[in-house]
Amino acid sequence: MQTELSLQQKSEVLLRKQKGESQRKLAEQYGVSKTIIANIKKSEVLLRKQKGESQRKLAEQYGVSKTIIANIKKNEHSIINSVESNCSQNRKRKIRETENEEVNNIMLEFFIKSRAQNIPVTGPMLQAKAAEIASSLQTEKFSTNNGWLEAFRRRNNINFRALGGESANVDKEAAFDWKMHLAAVIEGYAIED
């Protein structure tokens, strides 16, 4: 089962839900739970409420009671958090501090920056970087074994998957070279050609 929906997928879910598709069907097609689909819909209600629409108007449009709209507003923070983290608001997780919290925080920053630059990050790469950081911080009781990697991955909801999208596949140097080559190729032509 997929655990994350992109922003585009969340928008698609809202549009398809507005057209009347069932939560069950959408959940099956996107590989997420029905609760996540419901929370995406509730987040739309919250946005409209924040824009100033009345509870009565929202209740009529969504075919629910004003009490339901009031409860959605009351649980606003947990709904927004669950939509942003792509998990159910009923899922309770106790996040314990680890012995090497400083190393873990630096590693999370490293991972986020690498992914933002479309650099593929692997488990062994994270382990090597963590060992380097631990030694620079002079941390004695730190081991970058597979257990640490798995716990780090689970704690931060990290999936090692291939980076997709057009921008992840572009060789910037080759693109620059092509631009220079293209200018030379079209040099002898008129704009109309």
Q: What's the SSE blueprint?
A:
Elements: H1 7-18, H2 23-30, H3 34-50, H4 55-62, H5 66-74, H6 76-85, H7 101-116, H8 123-136, H9 146-155, H10 166-169, H11 172-185
Helix pairs in contact: 1-3, 2-3, 3-6, 4-5, 7-8
Short précis:
With 193 residues, this protein is an all-alpha fold.
Quantity of strands, as a count: 0
Tell me the distance between the termini. Answer: 52 Å
Write down the secondary-structure element order: HHHHHHHHHHH
Average the pLDDT over all residues and give the rounded result.
78
Output the radius of gyration.
Answer: 24 Å
- Can you tell me the residue ranges where pLDDT is under 50 for at least 5 consecutive residues? none
Helix-strand category: mainly alpha
Counting DSSP H or I runs of 4 or more residues, the number of helices is 11
Dominant shape: flat
- Largest sheet entry: none
Q: Indicate the proportion of strand residues.
A: under 5%
Q: Give the proportion of residues in helices.
A: 55-70%
Please supply descriptive tags for the structure shown above.
63% helix; mainly alpha; 193 residues; Arc Repressor Mutant, subunit A
Question: Could you describe the 3D structure shown?
Answer:
- The chain has 193 residues and is an all-alpha fold.
- The chain contains 11 helices and no strands.
- Among the domains are: 7-85, no CATH class; 101-155, Arc Repressor Mutant, subunit A, CATH 1.10.10.
- It has helices at 7-18, 23-30, 34-50, 55-62, 66-74, 76-85, 101-116, 123-136, 146-155, 166-169, 172-185.
- α4 packs across α5 (66-74).
- The longest helix is centred in the N-terminal third of the chain and has 17 residues, at 34-50.
- The protein is flat and about 60 Å long.
